[in-house]
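Z., the sequence and structure:
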Amino acid sequence: MSVTPEEKFQLSLMVDLEPVAERELNRHLSMAKEWFPHQYVPWGEGRDFDGPLGGEPWSLEQSKLSAEARESLIVNLLTEDNLPGYHNAISTAFGRDGAWGTWVNRWTAEENRHGIVIRDYLTATRAVDPVALERARMHHMEAGYDADHGDSFLHGAAYVSFQELATRVSHRNTGRASGDPLCEQMLTRVAADENLHMIFYRNLMDAALEAAPNETMRAITDVVKGFQMPGHSIDGFLRKSVLIANAGIYDLRLHHDDVLIPVLRKWNIFDRTDLTGEGEKAREELGEFLEQLDAAATKFETRREERRARQAARRS
C-alpha cells in the first residue's frame, strides 16, 4: 500500500513529537490522583427497582434534580458511554506503540471511570429514568462514533485540546446547577481528570506548532470552525443542548470565552511570527470565525435575558 505525502508528513511529525508525548505522559502520571467511583456514590439512598427484584418503579418526583441538570447529566453520561468508539479513533490517530499507545490506554481507563461513577450516582439517587437511560445508551452506542473533525493526527490532537476543556466546563457547571452537594463533589472530581487530559493535548499541540506551524494552524482552524461535542449524535441532542444552554450550563459564550480563547491564547496564536502562506490564511479565517462566534454568543445572551425577563414578569 502506497503512503501519501500527507500521511508521510503526519508519521514523521509523530516521530518527532514522541519525546514530547513521553514527557507529557510522565507529567500526567505524576499529577493524576487515584480515586474510586464507589466512594462518590450515596449508596444509602438506593433501593430496588421494579423488575425481577419486585422493587419500586421510577417516577419523576423521585428525582431531586432540575430538568436542566438531569438533561445535562444524561448528555454527559451518554457521551462517556461511546468510549469504545473514542478509543478506536484516538488509537488510530496516535497509534498503539511507545508513549502514544501508553497514553491512549491510560486515557481510556481514566475516562471509563467517569461513566461508571455518573451512572451509579444517577441510579442510586433515582435522578433519571433508568429504563429511558438504558434505551438511550443502546441507541447512541449502536450509532457508533466517527470522528468528523478530520482523521489526521493534527486534527485529532487539536480537537481533543478543545473538547477536553469543554467537557471540564460542562461537568463543573452541571455539578453547580444540580443543587446537590454530592453531585457537585462527584463532577468536580471528574472535571479534574478532564483538565489533566486537556493539558496533555494542549502541550502536545504547542510543540506541534513549533515543529510545523503552518500545518498545525490549518488543523486548529478546521477543528474550531467545525467543532461539535462528541455526543452530538445522541437522540434529541439539539433539544437537550438548547435546554442546557438556556440554563447557562454550556452555551456559546462559555464555548468562546472559557474554551476556545484560553487555549488559543496559550498557544499564542494571534501573536505568532512563524506563520506563512496557508498557515497565515488559516489564522485569518480563525480570527474571522471567532468574531462571528462572539457576535452569535452576544445575540444568544441578549435573547436569553429577554426571555427570562418576560418569564419573571409573568410570574410577578
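The chain has a mean pLDDT of 93. The chain is about 70% helix and 0% strand.

Let me know what you think.
H.
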